[in-house]
Structures are given as C-alpha cells and as structure tokens.
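In response to a reviewer's request, we include the raw inputs and outputs for one of the modeled complexes. The four entities were modeled together in a single run.
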Amino acid sequence: MKSSVDGTLAALADPTRRGVVELLRKRPYRASEIADAMATSRPAMSRHLRVLRKTGLVEERELPEDARVRVYQLRQKPFAELRSWVEEVEALWTDQLQAFKAHAEQRRPRRP
Amino acid sequence: MKSSVDGTLAALADPTRRGVVELLRKRPYRASEIADAMATSRPAMSRHLRVLRKTGLVEERELPEDARVRVYQLRQKPFAELRSWVEEVEALWTDQLQAFKAHAEQRRPRRP
DNA sequence: ACAGTCGTGAACGATTGGGTTAACTATTAC
DNA sequence: GTAATAGTTAACCCAATCGTTCACGACTGT
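The model returned the following structure tokens for the whole complex.
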C-alpha cells in the first residue's frame, strides 16, 4: 500500500520544483517564464514540469491565442492530501508525550 | 534563501524514512526495533535515522537502564513548519482562480 | 515559403543516494 | 576476565537523478 503523498513528497524534495510551486502560487506561468525565473535551461525545466504533472501538483493548459505555449497552474488536491497526512502525524503528539512520561516514570535513573 | 522545509521534504521523500515516521507516530521505538519493522539492515537504518536526526524530525535519547540502546521519538517542530508551508501554498487558491478567470475572459477563442 | 519561437525528446556525463558487508566502539551479561 | 549485544562508521557497488547540448516537431509572423 503506497500512500498518496509519496509522489508528492518526492516531487517537492527537489529545490527547483519547490521553487516552481512557490512561483505558481502567485499566478499561472508559461513554461519558458518558469525556466527563466528559476534560471534553469528549458529542457531541464521541461522534465521538472513533467514530474510535477505526473504527480498532479500542476496542470497544463494551452494558451488559446498561441498553441505553442503551455501555461502551468497549481492543482490543490495533492496539497490537501499532504496537509492531511501531516496533520495525522501531528495528531498523535499528546498521546505520544503521555506514553513517554509513563515510560520514563516507571524507570529509575541509573547511578553515575 | 533556503526554506526551512527543504530538509524536511528531502527526508520525507524516502519511503523507508516515511515509514519510520509513521511507525513512530504510535510510540518511541529503539533503533533495532525500527530496523526490524522496516525490514532493512541496521547499518542502512542507522543512516536513515541520522538523516531524520539532522533534519530534526526525530530525536534520540539513551535508555536509562541500558546505555547501548537508543530510543527514537518524533519531534513536532518540522511537521508544524511543513504544515504551515502547505497551508501557505493552499491559501492562494481562491485568488489563483480569480486570476485565471480574469485572464481567460479577456482572451477570445482562436478560430478553428 | 522562410525564419524564428516554444517546448519536448534523446544521449551523454557527473553527482547523489541507498544498500551491502566488514570492522569498530561501547556497553552489558556471565 | 571473556563473550555477546546495540549501534555506528567505513569502503564499495549499483541505480536513480539532475544538468547539459543537440536535434526535432509544432506553431507563428511576415
């Protein structure tokens, strides 16, 4: 059973791709703009965008007035899934602390 | 400027390490228990735990009654930071959609 | 038709990352 | 004391990944 966040985390692990995500927070950008903004070559960026597409983090559409350019835009679903995964992990802390205290108290410190 | 989440995401990108995190949600475990649970060798797990330690995702402590064993436990801070990063990205969607609609409307479809 | 632009794909090289086995240290048990 | 255990470190191998350059197909403008 592979979690739905595993592709997302792998995609976001790369600093360039994370930069793309942060860029696309503002507004949709075309591929070449993204490459320029991240100071990477277009072939390299093309592959990064492919990864982001396959994991569903971004969505591509065609610009109506110029069929050569592809405009990229964020998709919310993977982020929502990632957030709920993190929240799930975080949810256990109070219990975790209780368990730790309970464990620590039943042990006596060893002598120095 | 490197974000505080970049180490976190890199650490969580590996399935084994993510498995460790999910295991540690329940309670603290000792290193060898973790290795057994993930079905990986102890040296391999040792290195994974080192990564998790350096990024602050886990915390190591010594077992009082046996100084050989190291018990690992989650730390909340990086998860909180990751969650707030995701929330920041998510926060822009309504604006994003508005921007998209505005953009789309000012363009007329090209002729077939 | 021709030149220029947008983006992708392919082939190469370099780097990184994870796994393995084999020492090695520190601690505990006998 | 010696033997056994917990965990890490070191040296090596293999696979995946990222960037580059070059070539290509699709489209646009003139």
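As requested, we also summarize the result in words. Chain B touches chain A through 41 residues (CB under 8 Å). The two ends of chain B are 47 Å apart (CA to CA).
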